[in-house]
Design a protein that fits this description.
148 residues; Hyaluronidase domain-like; globular; mainly alpha; 5 helices
């Protein structure tokens, strides 16, 4: 099975609802392992590997396990939610849904503000996440202008 640069198994394709086939049930279950430190867990690493490789639905699927393992409320939970919503925004952009993309990019910013007291997520700085969200919002705004 091919692997991504971080060592995470690569799915055969990126799942885009309405465009590509969904992955087999349970395919991601082995990747959802969360350690005592959720930020240093196989699920966190896999989620970030998927984000960086353009597997946005897959990123969301795996990082949900990390998000659920974190205390609620907590700054760390907001940071993971920012990554999940960024992946969701990029997925909506790929699906041709610019208004949803813009809404999700705003949510990324809100979660980054709420999570500013969090310790850093290895492999995803707040600045990097903001830049990705700004880029997605810019592309979505251009696409939304084309719809008018």
């Amino acid at each position: 099975m091919p692997e991504l640069p971080g060592g995470t198994p690569a799915p055969a394709h990126a799942y885009v609802p309405g465009q590509t086939a969904r992955h087999p049930e349970g395919w991601f279950d082995p990747l959802k392992t969360v350690n005592a430190d959720p930020f240093d867990s196989p699920a966190m690493r896999a989620g970030l590997d998927y984000l960086h490789a353009g597997y946005f639905w897959e990123c969301h699927e795996v990082l949900e396990a990390v998000w659920l393992a974190l205390p609620d409320p907590s700054a760390e939970r907001h940071m993971v939610q920012a990554v999940i919503q960024l992946a969701n925004a990029r997925l909506k952009l790929a699906m041709g849904r610019p208004k949803a993309t813009l809404r999700l990019c705003a949510m990324v910013q809100e979660h980054l503000v709420a999570g500013r007291a969090s310790r850093p997520i290895p492999g995803a700085t707040p600045t990097e996440l903001l830049e990705w969200a700004a880029n997605a919002a810019e592309l979505a705004a251009e696409a939304a202008d084309g719809e008018l």
